[in-house]
Design brief:
Blueprint (H helix, E strand, L loop, with lengths): L10 H13 L12 H9 L5 H11 L8 H8 L2
Length: 78
Amino acid sequence: MTQLTLNIEKPSVLQLIKKLVVELDGVSIAKTPRKTTTSSAITSQKKKCGLKQAMEDIHAGRVNTYNSAEELFEKLGI
């Protein structure tokens, strides 16, 4: 059996080709395998809640502390 792969960008063209293929004797549309890399990448990167992200920032030293708002504004150059 010979297979032909088409890359179609326009949805309207895709629908037309599907209708044509159904009418041809001995021709069928093969289901495309789902990409496992995308789905596994999404499941491996679970979203973290805000508190967990904040705690990780504190432990990694990505937090600045200021004694007053004036000190913060001075640091920002405001």
